[in-house]
């Protein structure tokens, strides 16, 4: 049929026609006419047809692996194609549509299925550019910043890239002044976009915990974390992952990212309200420098840092005894350090999380109000990013003896060892009053990472 010469040519080039002939099951082909192919800009169509993966995805997206009887479609109905996507069928007074494209009432029957003619191509994600995906996912504010940065041609025609794109809501959580600066200042926009992207395709199934990738700005790394049922980047969570385009992979995140270019120690010193914690850290490191090892390659840390007021609540005499006892002071400090970067968004309401510090296990729970508790302390500030990891400020000191007393009588706990913990923030979480709910994660390989600045 001369109406389908472009489709036939693409099928021959890819060998897809042989797959259909060898298929033992009858199928339905939604066949785009030559006019449908001509509606796509010539340069874009050429790029799709010359890209093996994009071409195959395009062809698979027009084949349903079973017969489709259109009269049986009397309302919205989704059907899976031979590819990775589902197509929405619907009908109205004028006839039937698929993904909003009108289907011809005429069809042809063959030995191994049926064929309906389409006047438009149905492009799968894999045959779309990153710019098309941004628009499809309604990332309009991020798109505007990309255009201000002058990177629209890059993400339309070049790559492969992985983009961690803030959602529309995340972009508008920024101050109006910041957002206006990004939308109007080319240099600011370029820095912002380049920090949210990296070279190559990163699929969440292949991310290892504490993995570090260099952003496109070639100055600021992006730290990835594997949580129980999610993946994070810096202090953001990926809310929609692995949207594969022709020239890259798109992940949508719930926060705009800002590079961390200051160490944890510098942040605490600059604040001025953590002098006792810093003094305790210095004593521990003087007494036993290898105890903390905050320059360990491939590791980002979580610091639960009590304020000076929290230490003073212990009373002068008790605080003095702690500070003068090197062994107990070391245990106390180690009880505030976790060899894993855990951000507040990773904690779900009404679940207790058993977190292994360098000393013992502590409890973290997010209450319905959103308040985060660490044992009987409350996080008063959290997600303070730094080159070492992340700081959460707490209003009470996590003394190891208090933790031990709390752990022993209540319930049996499984200690999450370091290697298991590197796979998930939580190996064991329990719903209030209902016992443990175990969650497994697959083993992932740890990748090398540049040494981090020391805390002090």
UniProtKB/TrEMBL annotation:
InterPro entries referenced in this protein's UniProt entry, alphabetically: Adhesion/Biosynth-related, FAS1_dom_sf, FAS1_domain
Entry GO terms, CC: extracellular matrix; extracellular space
Species classification: Eukaryota, Metazoa, Ecdysozoa, Arthropoda, Hexapoda
Positions of transmembrane segments: none
Pfam families associated with the record: Fasciclin
Stretch list, region Disordered: 437-456
GO molecular function: cell adhesion molecule binding
Name of the protein in question: FAS1 domain-containing protein
